[in-house]
């Protein structure tokens, strides 16, 4: 099948002149012209393509050529409306001379052929004009064309096949062109009938045409002939009746070999069909409009996307159908393509159909060709991608974990998030001037390069544990997770870092804790076990051997209550029942049947851990308190003896155990101070000592203990239950163990409040007596001394009466003063 280039080459190189026009009545716009036509008419392609044939070939104003012009238009209309070829013979049309107002006389034969589309509609009309001016001399009688065409010279040299037939179809004359075409000599032809060369399929049609010609009608038809040598010929023939003395004696025929034209037409049709098939099969929508925006083509995809059939749009103005597009890019970009003769590409949203389209428009001589496709889904995807990018950007920037992107080629930082800036201490600007080597300690650089060279692969996620260097110099343990990405045009790596320093330290601490726990469980003094809710042992620590004298295997699978003393089972069972309301329960000591059928006192704390999948049971932490219970029994017996002895004394007797911190009192603590308990702690004892005495007393006791003296006495104030204080004399002695360490102190607290009060009253009395004595020795002495001096002066012989009288007054005053002093002494004496 010939290519499009082959078809164009045939069209352009054909020796026959061809002009292709559009069927846009009344313009008949010129669509194309081959080189022979341009040469024949002396035009350039750009001067006529896209212009109406009437504008290219105007009528000669100096010639009555309107009828002849009408004949040309009638020929075009014949091809358009009857959809058949038409031959126009020997018409005069004068060509305008360029640059002047003159016209050159010309005579023409012209064939018109309709080119049909797939809908059997005329798409193009092809004109095949033939200049016969040179074959018609200036002496031709225009009113006697039949005689003129009979001239042998014109007849024989006419380029088309010309022949005449008698009324029966026998050849009367033939010219050279017909002889060559039919491949038979003139002598033979003149003895033959035209029917001899007819294709069998065309007999009936040719006979009908011939009959009409002999009846006086001019006939134009196409016919298949077979030459004398058997070669097919396809001719377009015009039949004109030969009239002599008003009688039709035969038919004059002019035939044009249109085989090549038909081949070209078929090739054009094939090309048209191929182009149409391509346009219909391509995934893009396509339409074409002429320069007046009239739609000339509309493919199936355009129908689908724009919801309008080709029948409803072809032949209509694009903008009248799609008025909403006038204000959008569609109109402005199409106008630009046409006016500037440039291709345009753009994307635009068409609101009436709620679609996005991508458009490519290309200008042509006829108008514009538009390819477009629905990109609504792509736009939605782009919006979603944009949204996802924004989300990624937010996830990157707002992530609480430090993240950064670096160039795989240069290892330079390309981007960092806020968490990385805050964590490492560098600003974003500082980060972007560094490489990832700068956040690693020098000793880590070889490890980093080894990981990059060996482990970093495009499309793979890699994790590693590294040491990173912060701006403040801190070296931290970092878990690095990296994945390949692109950053702009660069191959990059997205890295998320997690500070594992605390986790590693916690792991180490956990390891130490586990070792401690193992030591506590396996090597500790307590027995740890796991039981189900029925009390069956599921796990027993190895310490069962040291605590109970039994191997763990002797207990696992057996029930706890099988080993509990009969009298204690209810106590333990009741404590187990408390686990339904309390997570942790302490069980007071009970008797457990250990090895050798000996009962040992066991103190236990149980915790319900059934919700913990690692345990799924009840944890029991047991401690052998047999020695403590026995000691408590002995202590109780001792206390009873101690109380029996202490009833014989009114003192408060106390016993302070340094190991337990418990102070045991006899009944004296209630009789003296009103406290109704006998067991108190060391802290309680200190809280009862008067605040002004507590520092002194505690210091004395500490010195006493440190010096390891056996006995101590101390006086201080001790609080009663009513909040008052009593003075006590506390005598105590220390008990030491075999290592010489004080382990116990026993004391006797005696109430000495009455003695202290008596002493204080005596001291107060003595103070008052001292005041009286001071008055007697100092206050009484002054008036008495004055009286004694005045007495001497009174009895002095040299004292005159006036002076003696004055001295007597002073003596009286001093006597009164002495009397007042004596009265004060008497008052204070009475108060003692």
Description of the structure:
With 832 residues, this protein is of the alpha+beta class. The protein folds into seven domains: 4-135, 2-Layer Sandwich (Beta-Lactamase); 145-263, PAS domain (Beta-Lactamase, 2-Layer Sandwich), CATH 3.30.450; 283-373, 2-Layer Sandwich (Beta-Lactamase); 382-499, Beta-Lactamase (2-Layer Sandwich); 507-624, Beta-Lactamase (2-Layer Sandwich), CATH 3.30.450; 630-751, 2-Layer Sandwich (Beta-Lactamase), CATH 3.30.450.20; 758-831. The chain has 30 helices and 33 strands. The strands form seven sheets. The protein has a six-stranded antiparallel β-sheet with strand order 30-29-28-33-32-31, sandwiched between helices. It has a five-stranded antiparallel β-sheet with strand order 2-1-7-6-3, covered by helices on one side. Strand 26 (599-609) and strand 27 (617-624) form a beta hairpin. Helix 1 (4-13) packs antiparallel against helix 11 and helix 29 (781-794) packs antiparallel against helix 30. The model is unreliable at 137-150 (pLDDT under 50).
């Amino acid at each position: 099948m010939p290519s499009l280039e082959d078809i164009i080459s045939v069209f352009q190189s054909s020796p026959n002149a061809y002009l292709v026009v559009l069927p846009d009545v009344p313009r008949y716009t010129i669509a194309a012209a081959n080189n022979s036509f341009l040469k024949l008419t002396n035009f350039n392609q750009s001067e006529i393509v896209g212009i109406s044939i009437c504008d290219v070939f105007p009528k000669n104003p100096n010639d009555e050529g309107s009828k002849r012009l009408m004949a040309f238009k009638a020929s075009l209309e014949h091809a358009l409306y009857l959809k058949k070829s038409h031959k126009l013979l020997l018409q005069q049309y004068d060509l305008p001379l360029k640059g002047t107002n003159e016209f050159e006389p010309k005579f023409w034969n012209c064939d018109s052929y309709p080119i049909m589309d797939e809908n059997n509609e005329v798409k193009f009309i092809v004109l095949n004009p033939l200049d016969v001016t040179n074959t018609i001399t200036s002496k031709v009688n225009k009113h006697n064309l039949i005689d003129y065409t009979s001239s042998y010279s014109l007849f024989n040299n006419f380029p088309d096949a010309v022949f005449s037939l008698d009324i029966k179809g026998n050849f009367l004359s033939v010219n050279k062109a017909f002889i060559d075409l039919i491949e038979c000599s003139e002598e033979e032809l003149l003895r033959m009938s035209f029917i001899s060369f007819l294709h069998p399929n065309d007999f009936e049609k040719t006979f009908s045409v011939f009959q009409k010609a002999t009846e006086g009608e001019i006939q134009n038809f196409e016919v298949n002939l077979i030459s004398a040598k058997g070669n097919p010929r396809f001719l377009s023939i015009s039949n004109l009746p030969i009239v002599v003395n008003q009688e039709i004696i035969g038919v004059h025929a002019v035939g044009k070999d249109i085989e090549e034209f038909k081949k070209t037409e078929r090739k054009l049709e094939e090309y048209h069909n191929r182009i149409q098939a391509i346009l219909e099969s391509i995934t893009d929508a396509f339409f074409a409009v002429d320069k007046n925006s009239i739609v000339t083509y509309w493919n199936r995809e355009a129908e689908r996307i724009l919801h309008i059939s080709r029948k409803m749009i072809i032949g209509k103005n694009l903008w009248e159908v799609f008025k909403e597009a006038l204000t959008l890019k569609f109109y402005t970009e199409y106008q630009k393509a046409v006016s500037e003769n440039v291709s345009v590409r753009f994307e635009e949203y068409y609101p009436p159909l709620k679609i996005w389209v991508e458009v490519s428009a290309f200008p042509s001589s006829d108008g514009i060709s538009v390819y477009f496709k629905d990109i609504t889904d792509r736009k939605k995807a782009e919006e979603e991608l944009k949204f996802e990018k924004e989300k990624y950007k937010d996830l990157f920037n707002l992530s609480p974990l430090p993240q950064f992107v670096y160039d795989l080629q240069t290892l330079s930082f390309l981007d960092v998030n806020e968490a990385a800036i805050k964590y490492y201490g560098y600003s974003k600007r500082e980060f972007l001037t560094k490489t990832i080597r700068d956040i690693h300690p020098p000793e880590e650089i070889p490890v980093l390069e080894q990981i990059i060279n060996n482990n970093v692969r495009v499309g793979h996620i890699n994790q590693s544990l590294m040491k990173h260097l912060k701006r403040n110099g801190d070296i931290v343990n970092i878990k690095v997770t990296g994945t390949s990405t692109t950053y702009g045009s660069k191959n990059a790596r997205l890295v998320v870092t997690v500070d594992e320093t605390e986790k590693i330290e916690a792991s180490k601490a956990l390891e130490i804790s586990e070792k401690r726990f193992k030591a506590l469980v396996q090597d500790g003094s307590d027995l740890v076990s796991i039981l189900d809710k029925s009390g069956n042992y599921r796990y027993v620590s190895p310490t069962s051997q040291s605590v109970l004298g039994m191997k763990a295997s002797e207990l696992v699978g057996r029930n706890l209550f099988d080993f509990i003393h009969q009298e204690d089972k209810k106590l333990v069972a009741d404590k187990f029942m408390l686990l339904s309301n309390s997570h942790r329960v302490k069980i007071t000591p009970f008797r457990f049947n250990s090895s050798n059928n000996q009962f040992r006192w066991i103190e236990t704390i149980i915790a319900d851990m059934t919700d913990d999948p690692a345990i799924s049971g009840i944890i029991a932490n047991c401690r052998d308190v047999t020695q403590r219970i026995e000691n408590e029994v002995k202590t109780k017996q001792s206390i009873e003896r101690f109380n029996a002895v202490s009833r014989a004394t009114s003192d408060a007797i106390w016993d302070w155990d340094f190991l337990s911190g418990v102070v045991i009192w006899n009944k004296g603590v209630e009789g003296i101070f009103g406290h109704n308990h006998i067991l108190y702690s060391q802290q309680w004892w200190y809280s009862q000592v008067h605040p002004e005495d507590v520092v002194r007393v505690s210091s004395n006791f500490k010195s006493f203990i440190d010096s390891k003296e056996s006995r101590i006495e101390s006086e201080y104030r001790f609080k009663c239950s009513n909040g008052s204080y009593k003075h006590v004399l506390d005598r105590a002695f220390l008990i030491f163990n075999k290592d010489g360490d004080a382990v116990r102190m026993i004391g006797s607290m005696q109430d000495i409040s009455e003695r202290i009060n008596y002493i204080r009253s005596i001291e107060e009395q003595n103070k008052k007596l001292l005041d009286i004595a001071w008055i007697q020795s100092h206050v009484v002495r002054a008036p008495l001394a004055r009286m004694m001096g005045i007495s001497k002066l009174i009895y002095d012989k040299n004292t005159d009466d006036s002076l003696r009288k004055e001295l007597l007054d002073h003596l009286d005053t001093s006597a009164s003063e002495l009397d007042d002093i004596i009265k004060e002494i008497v008052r204070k004496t009475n108060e003692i």
